[in-house]
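Self-study notes.
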Amino acid sequence: MTGQGERRDLLIVGGGLVGMTLALAAARAGLTSHVVDRAYPAELTAEGADGRASAISTASWNLFGNIGIADALEPLGCPIEAIAVTDGMKPGRIDFRPKPEEGTLGRMFANRDLRLALFAAAEGVEEIAWHTKAEVVERERGPHGVSATLADGRVLRASLMVAAEGRQSPTRDEAGFSLAKWDYSHRAIVTALTHELPHEGVAWEIFYPDGPFALLPLLDLPDGRHRSALVWTVSEKDAAGVLKLPDAVFTSEVVKAMHGVFGAVELAAPRMSFPLKFHHSRKLADHRLALVGDAAHGMHPIAGQGLNLGLRDVGALVEVLTEGMRLGLEPGDAQLLARYEKWRSLDAFMVMSVTDGLTRLFGIPGKLPSAARRLGMGAVQRMPALKRFFMDEARGMSGKLPELLRG
């Protein structure tokens, strides 16, 4: 990757999963970029640095195919063959299982494997100037372009600045974008488990009043042990205690919450925890600035759509900019940014509203709300059209899809 000094089309602040996907998608469309990240790639891909896994929807997988990383990722992902949704493992669950000819509901990948594939694909791409272990100390957005001054004195210039730094985006905050936000007062405890019985590609979403308990299928280990990712939502006041439990006690609580569906369980990764908060930026674009990914919207992990929403941002932004270039417009053009904002604002808000509503609906304790939920779930189970709607949402194939995500 060359081009440290010249002006480029994009200045992407944040080189994580969304930021680097954007750089690669933009490069395929002939757009050049500076990518600035505070970390070294080796720090982000070290064993144990990030034990999280992500569900990659069908639409996001199409995007990975179109930017050339699907072949490298194919053997590392576990297909999601079905999703089981249940209210505390009581009768009346919903099973989402597509027909064989329809393919899977997505794939589960370790975040580390996604990063390794993205970073390997970016190596040697002339359109991408990658600045690692770099701190942005000053940002400017002028009438004719943008710039970022790094801590070592280098100045990077481009037509459009893109904030891809995640939830705590300094670029977004410095621009004065206001957020609709609230705290769920819960934490997600994340780890990986090995278990006695095979998961058969089923993702489990078990709702309890304290929060959802999700088991997500991962590929078996080389020695044949079955493996799943766990995302267990607990109240903030209980989180510290749950994290301190001895491994044997923690796994027994996991088996209890799972009602033994996977048999005996062992921990396969360290336990990590993350506070659960909702935020949605009231604006997604401003003068020569666009937000993508968690800088724009952060949601509850209940439906596993956070990363997929960010990848839809990537597809939409690249499509808008590419069409603008054909008309002779530069990437920082206000008309293009207005179109991006209009396209993504409604879609992101709809997905996040449904997710937030589910979180609140299943969090209402008591026998009567539980009975009402199970009645509703039973109705969905019996209505093919409604199940099809939910499966299309899970695949990310609903709404106005960017071309890069259509396959």
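Second protein, same conventions, sequence then structure:
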Amino acid sequence: MIKDKLEYYLKQINAMKLFKIAIGSSIAIIIANGLGLQYSPSAGIITLLSVQDTKKETFLIAGRRFLSFFMAIGIAFLLFQSMGYLPITFGLFLLVFVGCSYLFRLQDGISMSSVLTTHFLIEKNMELSFIGNELAIMMIGVFIAIIFNLYIPKNIEAVKSDMRKVEEEIKEILSIFSQCMLKNCNQVPCGNAKANNFEAVNLAVKEGIGKEISPCILADKFEQLDTDLKKALTKAYENMNNTLLSDTRYYIQYFEMRRNQLTLLRQMKEQLNIITTVQKQAVPISEFIIKIAGTFHEYNNAEDLLVELSYIKESFKKEPNPLTREEFENRAVLYLLLNSIDNFLKAKRNFVANISPEEIKIYWNE
């Protein structure tokens, strides 16, 4: 138990970020010392505060801190010159400065600018030369952090790996749905549940046989897919924020599309749970779902599948009317299921339709 917790906490540590903070802060102090600046250790603290998880975040925070610094200088100069270099004056400075920082959304600079302002209080000096000293300290700390954060390894391969993993998980869920069309999976107790996979279910559908699948299997797979999608989106956003000269929102849009499809899969699952008996109309739907799973990948625009689905819907309309209430209710659920499948496929079609030719050339030809 303790070992597992230790391993978990160690995985949360960003070793590269720690290296950048330690080495960068030391270099900032050395440079400040070499230039003969007062309070040179503050340059190291500013580097520590300025090293962020992504390149864009580092640049944005650096800009906010420069604005925050100049605002702090203006407020401190007015207060110290009019009221003297007293602790109560510094308290009033914090009251005004922190309030203005939140007002103008410059909270990132509060700690750094407050520390630098204490130097004015200690030295009882706000001459231009000393203000230049503080500005130099800040510039050294921030620029060292920027330089060190210019190197952040891209996680494109990890993002692509997540894409393939999510696709496989959705294929498995679709394959299980296909089998559930031919047997009431919600009637199978959890104790008999066995893991399934795309190939096994595909064979089961073709041969009219199959292992028993319980709701527990689907619940586990939905939970895993939801978790993996959240992690994948986090990596996609990190990748976008670490890419300064190119636009990588494609990956974010891709995972958002899959998350939309996850919602539709949950809807389909609820509809399958309502079915009480297997209707003959379930067979072509089952075969169609397994076909979706078999052709499921990033580059499929789903156009052909949507055409085939329209034929299935038309064939439904030509079926004789149901003879019993139970048959009517189950037929109605099947039609709702077809609409959910339609929305599932349209989500992918719309995603592809919104991709520019440049994005297709970049991301589909990689």
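Instructor comment on the second fold: The two ends are 43 Å apart (CA to CA).
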